[in-house]
Amino acid sequence: MHKMKNNLILSLSIISCNAFAHDYPDEHGKCWILDGRSMIQKCLIVSGGAAGGTFTKFVVNKKDYYIEESNFCDEEVNCHILLGNSYENSKEARSYYRNIKNNKIIPKWEHGVWNCYQQIHGKMHICYATPISPPK
């Protein structure tokens, strides 16, 4: 009986850990929509995560952009990333970084960069920066 009780407690604690989700505080930053006009604008950045991945929502001039990234990846392969105007119409995307001063593509994250996402088979392409932009 004691062993069954311990197994039940362990099982419930594992289930409760896997169901945990969290939101990060909303941030104000800059978003760069690379759509031909390439205008840099102020934006609201809403993000959060759960056991399976993270999400980021950008609000630029009342238009929403969504990024969803899986946590199931290794260092050799990019994580599965989706980008779209809603979760339902998101397409596979890739991430990369740009120098915030000259906008040139750089190989890895460093302090003060554009965090960029581009649809692989689509036209959506967005970069963002916050006062302190950690890697995603």
Helix and strand run: HEEEEEEEEEE
Distance between the termini: 46 Å
Question: Uncertain spans, ≥5 residues at pLDDT below 50?
Answer: 1-20
Shape: globular
Number of helices: 1
Q: How many E strands?
A: 10
Mean pLDDT: 80
Largest sheet: 8 strands, antiparallel, barrel
How helix-rich are the residues, as a percent range?
Answer: 10-25%
Number of domains: 1
Query: Which secondary-structure class do the elements indicate?
Result: mainly beta
Query: Radius of gyration, rounded?
Result: 18 Å
Beta fraction? over 45%
Spatial strand arrangement across the major sheet: 2-3-4-5-6-7-9-10
Fold and architecture overview:
The protein has one domain. The chain is built from one helix and ten strands, in the order αββββββββββ. It has one helix at 2-18, and strands spanning 21-23, 27-33, 39-50, 53-60, 63-70, 81-84, 91-99, 105-106, 113-119, 125-129. An eight-stranded antiparallel beta barrel has the order 2-3-4-5-6-7-9-10. A hairpin with a 5-residue loop joins strand 7 and strand 8. The relative contact order is 0.16.
